Amino acid sequence: MNMSSKYPKPMIYLHWLTLLCVLVAYFTGDYPPADGLIGEIHVFSGLLLILLFIARIPLRIIYRDVLPQHNLSFLQHIAAHSVQMLLYLCMLLTPILGYLTLTADVDDFMLFGMALPYFSVDIVLGKAHQLFANSFIALAGLHAIAALFHHFILKDGVLKSMSLH
Q1: CB of 68 within 8 A of CB of 3?
Q2: Each residue's pLDDT tens digit in the chain (165 positions)?
Q3: Residues 158 and 150: beta-carbon distance below 8 Å
Q4: Is 30 helix (H, G, I), strand (E, B) or coil?
Q5: pTM, to two decimals
Q6: Three-state DSSP state, 113
Q7: Which of 47, 68, 88, 144 has the fewest Cβ atoms within 10 angstroms?
């Protein structure tokens, strides 16, 4: 086993690109059918988030033997794993629910000149999309606070393991 103190570069890039997509989706999210280009950017960032989630699965498998092993207490390990799984759940379900909400709300939506496939679903999904999106942001904030805690208080290199440098 070849353990490293840093994540492999593809996983680091995927991590920060995911954050970028989440932030873009958050700051462009209002009502995509009425928001023109901003709405298209919101939908695109959500669709890209699904692709990044799908890409994450084989990367986790490919690099499973070289991922950094951080020295965490049992409770820290449980908390970190729980937040990670909830983030993954939000990363998958938020854009799916958003897409289903979009297609429930409009008969067609053009994304950069291309019509997106339409699914007829119940509009109540919009509330679920919002709930997951807000949960996603809260969990990402908790994740960031934990990384900063590790960096400034514990000084254990956890944050540096995901840095681009």
Answers
A1: yes
A2: 345 689 999 999 999 999 999 999 999 998 999 999 999 999 999 999 999 999 999 999 999 999 998 888 999 999 999 999 999 999 999 999 999 888 888 888 999 999 998 877 766 677 899 999 999 999 999 999 999 999 999 998 889 999 988
A3: yes
A4: coil
A5: 0.89
A6: coil
A7: 144
Q: Which two tokens stand for residue 122?
A: 């119940």
* CA dist list (Å): 63 to 57, 87, 88: 10, 20, 18
Copy the structure tokens of residue 54: 């799908």
Structure tokens at 7: 């994540």
| CA torsion, ordered 111, 113, 118, 124, to nearest 10 deg | 30
Q: What share of the chain is helix, strand, coil (3-state, %, to 5)?
A: 70, 0, 30
Coil, strand or helix: which one is 114?
strand
Which tokens hold the place of 35? 């928001």
